């Protein structure tokens, strides 16, 4: 059963997103909402990772060897300035989109395995991830005119 691998992928992605949200908060804290909202999203990612842990442990017993190159690296640090904020938000968006599709895949597997507890976690976390995507998209729309049209 390869579900353990996707649970591990999703768990690791949540922890990476939490770290990335904190880095963006630190780098762009002068923006009125970035510090507070990015730290709030980091906590949500930490919560998602914690909710996944028991399932990752449970399914790990049945897992074959992990496939090569399962994990990806989407965030390599923050940038400066308005265009840097826009690019950092875009990186966060891509990381969040990866998690969103992983929630979908894990949810389908949970249905197939008839694991109601896992499906409950997926349903909650998938909804919260969709909210994160919407916020990131909205914040990028807000940052784009200043970053792309107005000179620094």
Structure explained in plain terms:
The chain has a single domain (3-62, 78-147), classed as Up-down Bundle (Ferritin), CATH 1.20.1260. 78% of the residues lie in helices and 0% in strands. It has helices at residues 3-27, 34-60, 81-113, 116-148. With 152 residues, the chain is mainly α.
What would the keywords be for this entry?
Ferritin, elongated, 152 residues, 0% strand
CATH architecture: Up-down Bundle
Q: How much of the sequence is in beta strands?
A: under 5%
Structural shape:
elongated
Radius of gyration: 17 Å
The H-and-E topology, N to C, reads as HHHH
Q: What name goes with the CATH superfamily? A: Ferritin, core subunit, four-helix bundle
**Overall pLDDT score:** 91
Share in helix: over 70%
| Whole-number total of structural domains | 1
The number of helical elements comes to 4
Q: Which spans of ≥5 residues are poorly predicted at pLDDT below 50? A: none
Number of beta strands: 0
Structural class based on helices, strands and sheet pairing: mainly alpha
Report how far the terminal alpha carbons are from each other: 53 Å
Largest sheet: none
What would CATH call the class?
Answer: Mainly Alpha
- Under CATH, the topology can be stated as Ferritin
